[in-house]
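Sample 3 of the quickstart, ligand NAP:
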Amino acid sequence: MAPPDSTPEHALDRFRLDGRVVVITGASSGLGERFARVVAGVGAKVVLAARRVDRLEALAAELPDALAVGCDVAAPDGPQNLVDAAVDRYGRLDVLINNAGISRVVPAVDDDLDGFRHELEVDLIAPYELARRAARWWIDNDHPGVVVNLGSILGEVSGGKMRVPGYTAAKGGLHNLTRELAVQWARKGIRVNALAPAWFETEMNSDDMFHTDSGRAFVDTGTPMGRGGAAHELDGALLLLASDAGSYLTGHILLIDGGWTAL
Ligand SMILES: NC(=O)c1ccc[n+]([C@@H]2O[C@H](COP(=O)([O-])OP(=O)(O)OC[C@H]3O[C@@H](n4cnc5c(N)ncnc54)[C@H](OP(=O)(O)O)[C@@H]3O)[C@@H](O)[C@H]2O)c1
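Result:
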């Protein structure tokens, strides 16, 4: 794969991912499924990971070159097995998109610590372990690498009326972990950034946020632009972080939020 042409006339070409191998966790629904279609559309080979393998296989069948891998990211061997599956199939790994996530709504005083711990396992510890396993491969093979962590506006501000203590703790931790790993690995050719959306309709939030009057009011009045995000409105940001278009970008939290955190 030739290095991207750096002439101004070829600026758009640097967003392409031809021949790159991209691992996406949580690719069985929502943002992860969309991201898989987006990176495949600019030439990537895609490794799709989640627990619902039937959905991954159906998606893989629609893409030019994709591998479905059943994976619980919070299981002890889940992260290493996923990195191994990507390298076994394609002989390389270029981009890790740490997208799998869960969210529980519970007032803190009513929370139970097992639930809180599990949320940290999936939303914070698993992305850390996946990034570490991928970075070990990149460093051992003298290969450049990119990590994109799915953060959230709730990594920067509270959930307000939402009551999401585990989620805010995990995403806040993931944002600062992004900065820490970016600095540790900057001279090893590994970039680490976070994509931090506000409200996009997916299985995670559809019923509560987009199909109740109170949810819609929460999103629409709280967002300076007056609405939640449309599915395509993360595509450009994702490609900037994942591709050579963002080659001087690391340790950044890219908020895509219609102004939510600018208030
Ligand atoms: N939608 C939003 O408004 C929004 C805003 C900010 C941030 N985010 C973040 O975006 C990411 C994607 O969320 P989404 O909105 O697309 O929700 P979603 O449709 O519910 O997708 C979550 C994905 O995570 C996977 N997952 C959950 N637990 C897993 C585990 N233990 N092992 C492997 N995969 C697991 C699920 O797959 P399986 O069930 O098949 O395993 C599913 O594919 C999350 O990190 C979320 O926090 C979303």
